[in-house]
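U., I forgot to send this yesterday:
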Amino acid sequence: NGETWCTVQNSGVFCFDASGKIIAHPTSPAGTCIIYKDRRGAYWISNGSALYSYNPHTGAYQEKLTFTSAGIYCMTDDNQGNLYISVYSKGLYIYNVESGKVTVLNMRQRGNKGFLCNDWVRSMAFDHTGHLWIGTEADVIHEDDEHGFRALPDECESGSERCFEAFAMHPVMHLAHTG
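Result:
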């Protein structure tokens, strides 16, 4: 329908039509900084201290998870009903929307998928095979079936230093499959 939902710092959630006109400004928690629509069509918002399920058409929201952090940089989801939330400086929170179970991956905690080399996650996305790629302040981390999460080998990083910086330092990440 040509609608674009976004958040504006210290102003909340807005909806724009295809011509760029504001058509909605529903209520949201104070400090809302991110809105995300998952693969199932559900909306989620965060304000840096909590995750909420959200209905942007009514402004109704329900707190699902709380945390302390320096903010939320990004969110993504997989095909199993898990939200992956960058809780900046705390690592990655994996929230199952059905059970409410939370798994934390960070530099200090090892899980069945390994651990993160850096807790400052700036961007992430799943590739066409269902594996997660994460851009942090210092590393590019890839999930694979054999090793779980791991930083890319040094030879990969040094061979594409310019691309590596753009991936790790830019809050919007673009992945392309070439083969």
